[in-house]
Write a structure and sequence with these properties.
Number of strands: 9
Radius of gyration: 31 Å
Strand order of the largest sheet: 3-4-7-9-8
Low-confidence stretches: 1-8, 13-42
Number of helices: 10
Oligomer: single chain
Length: about 280
Amino acid sequence: MYIYARQPSSSQYRRQHKPITLRSLGRRYASGPKKTVAGSLRKKLSEVKTSLDIDRAVRLNRQYARSVGWQVYFDRIVRLVGFTTFTPNERLFAEAVARWQQHEGLPAIGAIGPKTWSRMQTKFSIATRPAVKTTYSLERVVYDLEPYFQKEGLQVQQTSGYRSPEYQLELIKRKAIEYGLDKKYPSIRTATVADVESWRGAWDELLNKHGYIINPPVPTESRLAGRTILASTHSSGKAFDLSTYKRTDLARIAAVVQRYKQDGGPIKQILIERKNNAVHVTLY
């Protein structure tokens, strides 16, 4: 079927004016706006790809994963940049990171450097202090716990993870000085893990008189002053602490972890340490 603005008067007019069909009219008005939207979207994505050096981004991510420290948080990052059903390869991962960076107003380089990692950490339901060391087994549980805390609207911070005996001793030193115990036990300032007598007095007083719950800096079960002392569960890489700004939320945090345990989570023990403003979680 053909439509003309007016009825043609001659065969010459018909040849000079190409007829417009209903099909071509529909195609023009239906496809015009769609092409504009799709075109702008394709242009935006192509801008990211054309300005992105994929090979360089892959190399940088391999380097930054260890130096910046986000390697053990990979599962959480993958979900953050949009992969919920499968794990991407390195090139797809770099492209997704670049799109996320562009959305966040960061340079879209496709690599997770210090600035991008800092921004990503603010997006997690469970933030992690920069000094906290973690392991793959701990991070797997923290990753699984995130949806539970999101559902409860809780903002939680992981305040502790893996601790070596040396780091455990540093915490004891810091707390002993805070309580003024270095005046009574001056050796605590220069204490070493191997020299038990240099830290035993200050540690014992922190634990028994000040109620500060902390294990001694021993790598394995030991005998001190005629009693058996267990090593810190943190030194095994199977314990971490969760905290929040509101002390009243500690019970809620413990309840959420308990629910996760009932759902099959590998939780061995949950302790509320009010003096430390933390919930201590031990894994099997």
